[in-house]
Specification:
Length: about 180
């Protein structure tokens, strides 16, 4: 029997293992700081800067639309956010954060298969996207695929080793995960 979630988990795992970091010198420096900084305040500033870069766009229409999406998320207006994200992806298909935000929206609506498609695309465009990787881990947990969740959270820790809640999840999953074949 065909399991659309399992096949899409495989798709994300493939994206995780085949994508190369984008050529973004500013992000490269920030990711190195994120990996090496242990000070909570400094780490938080680096994370915020990374998110700001991901959410920014050189096109003012795109940048304004993304701000509107984030405002819609905050207000709980997911319908408008979904339509705007579809438009952003159509117009700027190489914008990783548009894909990630739509994955987040689909996750919130429990449309996990579609969310996994968007996560795969996000990771193809930005393999260091710790938000997409965390979302992938959450979907794997929801699907009962603890091995894939463990792989996702371990990858998050490679990018940012200073996340105590992710360390705890990894410890628990290492105890629970049973090998699966993908």
């Amino acid at each position: 029997m065909f399991d659309p979630i399992a096949s899409r988990i495989d798709l994300v795992l493939a994206a995780m293992n085949s994508s190369l970091p984008t050529d973004t010198p500013e992000l490269d420096v920030l990711f190195e700081r994120l990996r090496t900084t242990t000070d909570k305040g400094a780490r938080s500033e680096v994370e915020q800067r990374i998110w700001a870069i991901w959410c920014s766009h050189e096109d003012t229409v795109a940048a304004t639309s993304m701000k509107n999406v984030m405002d819609s998320f905050e207000a709980g207006d997911l319908e408008d956010a979904g339509q705007t994200l579809d438009t952003l992806i159509d117009r700027w298909p190489r914008w990783a954060e548009a894909w990630n935000k739509r994955a987040t929206l689909r996750f919130a609506r429990e449309h996990d298969a579609e969310s996994l498609d968007d996560i795969a695309r996000t990771l193809e465009l930005e393999p260091r996207h710790f938000g997409a990787l965390s979302g992938f881990g959450q979907i794997c947990l929801r699907a009962g695929d603890y091995t894939s969740a463990l792989l996702a959270f371990e990858r998050v820790l490679v990018i940012d080793p200073n996340l105590p809640e992710v360390h705890k999840a990894v410890e628990l999953l290492r105890k629970q995960a049973q090998p699966t074949i993908h």
